[in-house]
Amino acid sequence: MSAMLLTINANAIELRGSHKANHVACKSCHTKGMKQAGTMEGCLSCHQSYEAVRALTEGKTDLEVNPHIDGHMGELDCTECHHIHKPSKAVCNECHGFDFVTP
Ligand code: HEC
Ligand code: HEC
Ligand code: HEC
Ligand code: HEC
């Protein structure tokens, strides 16, 4: 019974959006092995740098602040806001009410 549940959980690990469309390999993000969460080092192997992602959201007039970053929390780990296998959630909104839709 528990073995069956484990199988179901393993199958539930999925990608979405561009990572799914681009068939991003598990280990591109799981740079410390599959028993650890994906790392920012993994993210930056494709997304380059904070400057690069900042440029993507800079100048979007519908954004009150640039999440990458106009804050006072420094350069946060990408996965503080972007989750990969579960819905994302900008950490800023633990305190603020920014109208972010976090992909
Ligand atoms: C193997 C390359 C690769 C890795 C590793 C990777 N990404 Fe991506 N990501 C992409 C591509 C390609 C896109 C599509 C947009 C683009 O062309 O830049 C994308 C898009 C995104 C988007 C926009 C939403 C979407 O689905 O289009 C977010 C957010 C994102 N990545 C976050 C992350 C985070 C966080 C990590 C690390 C946990 C990560 N990515 C690791 C290649 C990668
Ligand atoms: C403080 C939360 C936060 C952190 C940390 C963060 N992001 Fe984001 N990111 C967002 C939000 C919110 C958006 C959506 C902005 C919008 O509405 O256009 C976004 C959008 C993106 C996009 C899509 C940009 C586009 O083309 O529209 C990519 C790619 C991305 N983030 C990658 C990253 C990567 C890589 C890191 C780490 C270097 C990172 N983000 C760190 C909150 C965050
Ligand atoms: C784009 C980056 C990325 C890719 C590709 C990726 N992962 Fe992950 N994975 C993460 C991150 C980040 C976490 C931490 C939880 C989260 O953000 O969803 C995680 C968490 C996990 C976990 C722990 C689940 C939990 O409860 O937190 C497992 C298991 C896992 N990934 C398996 C996989 C497998 C299998 C693949 C390939 C099919 C894969 N991952 C591809 C980034 C990635
Ligand atoms: C733990 C709570 C907390 C978190 C998380 C947090 N902030 Fe703040 N932030 C504050 C407080 C408190 C102030 C001061 C509010 C004031 O002076 O009115 C502030 C002020 C600001 C301001 C200047 C005042 C304003 O509202 O225009 C900006 C911009 C800002 N935060 C952005 C961010 C961003 C972006 C993030 C996520 C990366 C973030 N904050 C995360 C608590 C937080």
UniProtKB/TrEMBL annotation:
The cross-references to InterPro entries, in alphabetical order and at most eight, read:
Multihaem_cyt_sf (IPR036280), Tetrahaem_cytochrome (IPR012286)
Protein localization: Periplasm
Q: Which GO terms describe its cellular component?
A: periplasmic space
Q: Which cofactor does it need?
A: heme c
Q: Which UniProt keywords apply?
A: Electron transport, Heme, Iron, Metal-binding, Periplasm, Transport
A GO molecular-function term, please?
metal ion binding
SUPFAM superfamilies per the record?
A: Multiheme cytochromes (SSF48695)
Report the principal subcellular site: periplasm
Q: For the Tetrahaem cytochrome domain, which residue ranges apply?
A: 19-96
Tell me the classification of the organism that encodes this protein.
Bacteria, Pseudomonadati, Pseudomonadota, Gammaproteobacteria, Alteromonadales
Q: Which organism is it from?
A: Shewanella mangrovi
Q: What is this protein called?
A: Tetrahaem cytochrome domain-containing protein
Which regions form coiled coils? none
